[in-house]
Amino acid sequence: MPTPIRTTAALCAAALLTGCGGDTGAGEAGLRVSTTTGILADLVRQVAGERAEVTAIVPHHGDPHSYEPSPGDTAEVARADLVFSNGLLLEEPGIMKMIHSNARKGTPKIAVSEKLEEFGGTVIKLQEDLGLDVLWLGWAVEGAVPGEGSQIRITARELSGPGDLHVYLTDTLGTPHSYLDSTDGLDAADSFTLPPEAHTHVNWVFTEPGTYELTVTGESETLAGKRREVARGTVTFAVGGRGDQGGRGRELLATGHADIALDAEKGEVFVRAEEAATGESVRHPPGSVALSVPDKARKTVPKEEAYRFLGDAGADIWVLPQAVLGKHVHGETDPHAWEDVANAEAYIRRITAELTRADPQGRAVYEKNAAAYLATLHALDAEVARTLATIPQGHRKLITTHDAFGYLAKAYGMEVAGFVVPVPNQEPSAAEVEHLGRTIRETGVPAVFLEPNLAARADVLRRVAQDEGVRVCTVYGDSFDEKVHDYVAMMRHNANELARCLGGEGS
Description:
Layout: E1 31-35, H1 38-48, E2 52-56, H2 71-78, E3 82-85, H3 93-102, E4 109-111, E5 136-142, E6 151-160, E7 165-170, E8 176-181, E9 191-194, E10 199-201, E11 203-206, E12 210-221, E13 227-239, H4 244-247, E14 251-253, E15 257-263, E16 268-274, E17 281-284, E18 289-293, E19 298-300, E20 316-320, H5 341-358, H6 363-389, E21 397-400, H7 406-411, E22 415-419, H8 430-443, E23 447-450, H9 459-468, E24 471-474, H10 487-501
Helix pairs in contact: 1-5, 5-6, 6-10, 8-9
Family: Belongs to the bacterial solute-binding protein 9 family.
Main location: other
InterPro entries: ABC_LPXTG_lipo_actinobac, AdhesinB, Bact_metal-bind_prot9, Lipoprotein_PsaA-like, Surface-anchored_actinobac, ZnuA-like
C-alpha cells in the first residue's frame, strides 16, 4: 500500500521521533491547564513545554467513557486557566458537567475535535455493529438544549405489565448501576441524564413475559437544577411468547440497533431504528411499533450479590443486553480522531492557537514547539503507513474490544470487521459466540485485538480466539498505561502490534 500523502507543516529532517516536549521557554509555568484525558495532556505538553502546568482528569488505565471525577479533579479544574476536552461526546457526561460547574467564570473550555476540520483534520461517522441476535436498545436525545452545560433528564413515569422492569448500566469493573427499577413503583429516582445529541447503551430486564407499556418524560435541566418538561410518550414492549398481543397492529422491532429517543426541540418521544437494508436511521411514532424481547432473550439472574436487585439468583429474566461494556454515551460522530496521526496534527494546531490566545507572550515558544512536534508527527504518520502497508491485503481487518479504531482503519487502508465486548456478568448466547467465531473464520484474520484497560473483561474474545486458533494482541485506544506514556509511543506500538500480529513485518 502506498504511503498516504498528507498536507501538513514541512518536515524537519532533524526531528527525532521521541514524543518529548520542545522548547520550555523562560521562567516557571505561567498557565494552569486541565485536560480530560492523558492523550490530550501529552499533546498540550508538547506545545506548552514548561510555560504551562498540565494535568489530566482521567488517569492512566482510565476510560473517558465512564470515569467519575474525584474531588481532586474538581480542584484542578477550579484553578485552571484553560480546559481542554476532546468533545464529540467522548467524555462521560459527569466529567463535562463537573467542568461546566467548577471552572472559573470566563475560563476557556475548548472541545478540540469539534472544530477539527477548521485545523486540517477530518471526522467520520461512528460505526456500530455487534451482530447481536436480539434488539440492541438504548436511549438517545436529539435537538439542542438551551444553556451552557444543559442536559435532558429522562424519567420513567408509568409502567403497565405482568412483571417488573429494570434498566441498568454495567461499568467497566462489572458493577451494575440502576437507572430505572419498577419493583417499588416509579418515582423521581427512576431517572438519569443525557447531554444533547447523545446516545447511551443500557441493559433492559423484564421479570415476566407479556406486554408492557412504559411512559417516559424528558425535562431540560440546567446546571442550577431548573427543569422544564419538553417531551412525553409511551412505548410498547412485547416480551416472550405472551407478548405477541402487544405487537398486534404494530411493526415488531426484533433485531438491529434502536433507541428510545427524545427530541428536545420538537417535544417528541419516538423510537429511532436503523433500517437493515440501508443502515439509515428511521423515526417511528411510539404507537406504531413494539419492541421485541423474544423467548430466546430469556436468561437467569446472575449469582453475584450485586445483582440481587433483579431477583433471586437463577430466576428467569428476559434481557436486551447492554452489549458495550461501561458507560458509553456518544453521538453520531466517532470521537476517536487521534487514531489517524494526521488528525493529531490538527489537534496540535488547535491547541497552539488556544494556548497563544490565552498567553500571547508565549506565542514564540508555542509556535516553535508546535513546529518541531508537527515534524515529529509527520514522520510518525509516514512510519505508521509504511508499517501497516506490510500487512497482507487479506489480513487488514480489525476485530477489537471497542469501536475506537475507525480512523486508524480509514487512514491506513485497514477495515473494521467488528468489535466484541462481552455482556457483563452474562454468558453469551450460542448464537453470539458462533457469530464471533464465524466472523473470525470468514475474515481469515490471524489475530484479534484488545485494549489493556479492557483486558480483564475480554474472556469471551480470548476463548473464541483460542477455539479458532488465532492470537490475542493489544492496541491502545483511549488511554495510556505503565508501558505506554505518550502519543507517539502509543501509535508506534499500535502500528507494530497490528503488523506483527496480522502477518506484516513490523518496524
